[in-house]
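>> Question from a student workshop board

For tomorrow's exercise we were told to take the sequence and the ligand below, predict the bound structure, and bring the output to class. My setup keeps failing. Could a helper post the expected result so I can at least see what it should look like? The ligand is zinc ion.
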Amino acid sequence: MQQGRITRAAGGFFTVRDDRGSEYLCRARGSLKKDKKGLMVGDLVKFDLVTDGAGSPTGEGIIEEMLPRKNSLLRPPVANVDQLVIVMSLKQPECDWQLVSRLLVLAEKEDLSATVCLNKTDLFNSLEQGKLDSKVEQFPYPIFYTSAVSGEGLDTLKEKLKDRNSVLAGPSGVGKSTLLNAISPGLSLQTAPVSGKIKRGKHTTRQASLMPLESGGMVVDTPGFTRLNFFDIEPEDLADLFPEFRELHDACGFRDCLHLAEPRCAVREEVGKSLNPMRYEHYQYFVRELSQQEVY
Ligand SMILES: Nc1nc2c(ncn2[C@@H]2O[C@H](COP(=O)(O)OP(=O)(O)O)[C@@H](O)[C@H]2O)c(=O)[nH]1
Ligand SMILES: [Mg+2]
Ligand SMILES: [Zn+2]
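>> Workshop helper replied:
Here is what the output should look like for this input. Compare the format with yours to find the bug.
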């Protein structure tokens, strides 16, 4: 049996890529389809090659088995992800920091390491950069800057993606596909100008597929989205998904402190000191959102 990774899934067919980079079009063994989780892009699978009448391989295969998953994301649906790279642009469209935090919460929940890539630095002047620098002080995740126009940060991006399975996520129009084309021109991904009226990109990247990068590693370019819902998170568990709050929790006066209005709250105490105020705002907003969801 051969082993490989599913790089594409459509209409009951799976493209499986082996270590040498050969791709096979596969169907799944009937018993696998009934598996409640189903097969996903990113899954490691064992498969048998289909041969023709003369016994030569046809380039097609049958997936017999799925190897255990390390993790899986729902949006985009992809398994065994090493890292999430959240891409935002500084302008056109403007960076949506709440969406950044939302994606970071989802990454924490899946035990995924995450980085933030801020693109289109060419549209930013030093005054705007200065304002941003103070906004992201004490931000608890790595942030790096890129521009597909000036080439700034492209080596950093390439280095971060090297030899890992990464998912690029962020709204449409921020430059995800353009950045991937810049570091791996063979991909020839479609890109689209941000539509003038609503300053939001058109949806050009459709299906989730895992693409090999010329410099090593694989990446999923996702269609943009602006709205993401949480599910399966209780309000009292949210602070655990803010790593910078997690370590302070023990110092709060109440063991079940939600870090909202409770007295002697170690988290609130640190907002504006060791904690980024914007992150605390996002936390408050998300707790409220999760509490409202609970009613139903
Ligand atoms: N000024 C500027 N424009 C960029 C940059 N990167 C991408 N773009 C433009 O932004 C638009 C959207 O890019 P695209 O890659 O399709 O965004 P995606 O939806 O995130 O994949 C295109 O018109 C790109 O040419 C950048 O660094 N600077
Ligand atoms: Mg795109
Ligand atoms: Zn507290």
